Amino acid sequence: MAQLYYRYGVLNSAKSANLIMAVHNYDKKNRKVVVLKPKIDTRSKPNIVESRAGISHACIDFDKNENLFELVNALNSKDIIDAVFVEEVQFITKEQAKQLHKIVHELNIPTLGYGLKNTYIDGELFEGSEAMLFYADKIEEIKDICEYCNKKATQNLRVVNGEPIYKGETIQIGDVNSNVEEYYVPVCGYHYYHPELK
Fold it and tell me: Is 172 annotated in some ligand binding site?
């Protein structure tokens, strides 16, 4: 029986690399997979999932109005799909998370969503993350360590011009604005409030 997996981690925890390697395992066995990515993720080229480790894979970009069940069902009717992978699943809507659940339980296609759980704003959940926590049959954490110590990283800290940022828009795509010094770091609970910024 197929299941919906939600694999989450903090920033820089190799989520994209994990997704690409899982897809590779299907590819080398000549299995048909569909890889999806929200268009809102502008860090990588269109229709490409890229990892900071330097590996990449082709994908289908979609927007927040796309019906993922209908998309996958149409593709599946042409060529049987063995698995669906979704990159940056935190950016999907609640309705799209429900559509992923429907892909699993109506089409019997294993579906794996990879993404963040928490925003940088007081650790709040993204809409897609919250929905995946509800709909997923299996929830797995991709672990990483804090930028400043050896504790497990549980938060994403946004830093702009050397200052930690705790308020703002929920969705801020990093690595794209060259006018400001902006970056994100994975941190433990203590260093979320007491970052060792230089």
Answer: yes
